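To: structure desk
From: M.T.
Subject: fold request, one chain
Message: Could you run this one when you get a chance? Sequence is below, nothing fancy, just the single chain.
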Amino acid sequence: MLKSLRIFVFILTLLLSFQCVFAQIPDGYYDAASGQSGETLKTTLHGIIDDHTVKSYDYLWTAFQTTDDKSNGKVWDMYSDVPDGTPSYEFTFGSNQCGNYGQEGDCYNREHSFPKSWFNDASPMYTDLFHLVPTDGYVNGKRSNYPFGEVGTATWTSENGSKLGTCNYPGYSGIVFEPIDEYKGDFARTYFYMATRYEDMIDTWYNNSDEADAVLQPNDFPVYETWFLNMLGEWHENDPVSQKEIDRNNDIYSNYQHNRNPFIDHPEYVYEIWGVGASVAPEPTNHAADFSAHCITLNWTDATGDILPDAYLIRMSSTSFDAISTPVDGTAISDNTSNKNINYGVQKAIFSGLTPNTIYYFKIFGYTGSGTSIDYKTDGSVMQVSIKAN
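Reply: Done. Structure tokens follow.
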């Protein structure tokens, strides 16, 4: 198959700016909270994460491209994703941005997982990335400003299994929205964050709506109604902190708001403050400080030309450039620790879990097509670079 460099300029203007990002809590970040518990611990954490850098509402579209991107470059939408399975649709950043929608799968928008009507659309809550996530616009509309809960009788179910219907969790029988099990802990830790970050104002959000009153109390501790607090504790325990949350926490801290979600960094804080959920031990699988995730981030400017690549395959080796095999047309390479497929327009790839003081080698292949029709550009225009993980 012809591999003409004229197909696209694979100099890529690869401004390959490199940075080594450490997926861990900054030294001393939580020192002030040492030895504390209960309401005192929550207030101390509030002081640590307060006064974050506020971004504009429009800027969220840009932030989502790094805070909520899947390994294949698609939008990580917790209302449509099927973990360990194949979702019926996926969104592309930018091109599938809402806009109007008439059915599920039309477009994605900005979901206030803690409904904005509960705090009267006020700033800085309105643009706080820790509770704002990209989700299917139609599903977002179905959720409306209903509380999260556990559905007994569903009146509507999304394609990935999220539900709307009557709550059957003890203590509440109103209408609720239930995300799938794999993301319940994510949302629970979001609500613990909101109760802590906005400790100085959350007591005034009571009486803003019936839906808010079903969840909130008019105080700054314990903040949530007993039924809701118990449910959040169970969600937090049953769906432990994931690598997705760790990466998102670090990205928001490093690149956008410069504050963190303490309940991702220290899952045990939930039990120590509210006494709900198990006292989750800070294990390597769910505790950012112990997670060995030295990484290299590659950034570039996209290729230009008459015919543009659909995506890039980035292959890594810790041995040499020669150890990186050339991909074969018609054979798609799946994402793993040393191979990443990045869509045109995303301009970023992260390789994590690397060994410090080791040189890593990368080759970047542009390609068109997909699956058995994939066509790699390998005629000498392949970009390669090496860098040491610190």
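Reply (cont.): The chain is about 20% helix and 20% strand. Let me know if you need anything else for the meeting.
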